[in-house]
Design a protein that fits this description.
287 residues; globular; single chain
Length: 287
């Protein structure tokens, strides 16, 4: 009896527009997450819109993203799709494209920071004296391993949701580029959940990042491998540099160019970096 009702309900939902299905997806995701998030936020002593620390953000993000596959599975039942139709067929070509994307993303970040270092806008972090009480910096190799795993997980989850499911739904109602622009705007705005108004300067950069990742899916034949790899490579490189503090701001570079410390997408260099990445994707792979 229950399964008959469930099947009939899901069959009815499949007649909804792509926008309606996307809204239902995000509502279901939030409803499932709130009973976990509220007590967890209280335990972590985080009260929005108060800025969130990394130690507070990671458990909340983990709880949210662990629910994502369950909600996405429900979405496939509603619209009769599969993860493969969202761009994740789980074959060798996806993994190969992901590897290329990781390399391109990490090298791109390295080049961007190297340029700023050569201009004197970044400097090497001073070594910590053993006699001080300041905590030692994390070791580089273990940090790189942990941030790579984090990048792969976060990158895969966000690509499957925003460049997979959401793009597919929006393209049912809009032209591809309009769907891409809307999905990228949603992607950018949702970043305000964690850091509130402090993240507003990064909104144009986050939107452009979303557009570049949509382009990565398109040039990869509709698969998410390249977009997943790019996203993961960016997270890997940025998180490694932030955690180890290998390079820090020298205070000499104008913030309108470099972006606020810890927010490279709020500066012109970050926007140029994303534009160059998009040009490379277009030039090498085309559409």
């Amino acid at each position: 009896m229950f399964y008959t009702w469930l099947f009939q309900t899901l069959s009815g939902l499949s007649n909804l527009s792509g926008v309606a299905i996307a809204i239902l997806f995000f509502l279901a995701w939030v409803v499932l997450w709130l009973p976990i998030a509220v007590p967890l936020a209280i335990a972590l002593k985080w009260h929005p819109p108060k800025p969130i620390t990394v130690a507070q953000k990671l458990p909340l993000l983990a709880s949210l993203y662990l629910l994502a596959p369950l909600v996405l599975w429900g979405a496939t039942a509603v619209d009769g799709s599969t993860f493969a139709s969202y761009g994740l067929p789980w074959n060798a070509s996806v993994l190969r494209s992901a590897g290329i994307g990781i390399l391109l993303g990490a090298v791109g970040i390295a080049v961007m920071f190297a340029i700023q270092y050569s201009l004197g806008w970044l400097k090497r972090s001073p070594m910590i004296d053993d006699t001080t009480t300041e905590p030692a910096k994390p070791a580089l190799l273990p940090t790189m391993a942990s941030t790579l795993l984090l990048g792969l997980w976060v990158g895969l989850t966000e690509e499957l949701i925003f460049r997979g499911f959401l793009i597919n739904q929006l393209q049912r109602d809009y032209a591809p580029w309009i769907a891409a622009a809307i999905a990228s705007l949603i992607f950018a705005i949702l970043h305000l959940v964690w850091e509130g108004k402090e993240n507003i300067p990064q909104l144009p950069g986050l939107w452009l990042m979303g557009m570049v990742l949509v382009l990565a899916r398109w040039v990869d034949g509709g698969n998410l491998g390249l977009a997943w790899g790019l996203h993961s490579g960016w997270i890997w490189a940025i998180a490694t540099l932030d955690t180890t503090q290998l390079l820090v701001s020298s205070g000499h570079g104008p913030q309108w160019l470099t972006g606020a410390e810890g927010k490279p997408l709020s500066g012109v260099i970050g926007l140029l970096f994303l534009t160059a990445t998009g040009a490379i994707l277009w030039g090498i792979w085309g559409i």
